[in-house]
Amino acid sequence: MDRRLFMGAFTAGAVTVAVGSADSASAADQVTVFNGRVSAQSFYADGLGGQAACFTTASDANSYAHALVALQTGASGGLKPDGTQLINNGAAINAVSTNPDSSAMYLSGVEKGRGTLKITHTGYDDGSDKNAAALSIDLKVAGTAAQGIYLTATDGATQGNLIALRNNTGLDDFVVKGTGLVGIGTVRGDNPRAKVHVVQKTGSAKEGENDAAGLLVEGTVRIGNAAAVPTGVDGKAGGGTLYAQGGALYWRGSAGTVTKIASA
């Protein structure tokens, strides 16, 4: 199978053609075809104002071929003479851009059952990686107005979860639905039954896993006047509704009885 290098300029420390020979291009902007596998100790590609490199492949369920594999085989940096840890900062990919008008990297996909970007951190069961993270974001320069995480839907509202954090079995520890409803500790896959739905964890067989409270506020809580007097309660949870009207505080019980708790 031919391997094609689409490069305006190509420099390699040592290039080996495993099978066949190379048909050299007559000009720098043409294609050089290597009839076999190309092995190089290192290479430098300069697009000279155009595309520097293009890697293309076609895979199926049997071949499972990646267009590009970047593998960093370095080990830990070891110890300094004084016993302190040396850090090996070598990365598999280091993508850097100095163009202020565009993103440093574009990523797009058409997946149906996987993430467009899949990140896996292989951890240590002794917890020695407590300072590591699957995703780490550092906003440089004090005073920057850049956003840490920004999610939007430029073609209109979507149906799936905008954010879903799942660590405990059977629960959505934190979920933001496409409707904007927020669930904390709700049953996995259920729709929150309020703008913010918090479920206290109780009944766990393991000590220390129960929540002391569903909500803890250190400071004051402000309750604005309700736009309309509530007329019902959650049919599944029961209970009642606490609300303010005209500056006064009221409680409406499940039977419909309204009790004024505090005057305006």
From TrEMBL:
Lineage: Bacteria, Bacillati, Actinomycetota, Actinomycetes, Kitasatosporales
Entries under InterPro entries matching the protein: Hyaluronidase_bac
Organism, scientific name: Kitasatospora saccharophila
Tree of life domain: Bacteria
Protein name as it appears in the record: Hyaluronoglucosaminidase
Pfam families listed in its UniProt record: Hyaluronidase_1
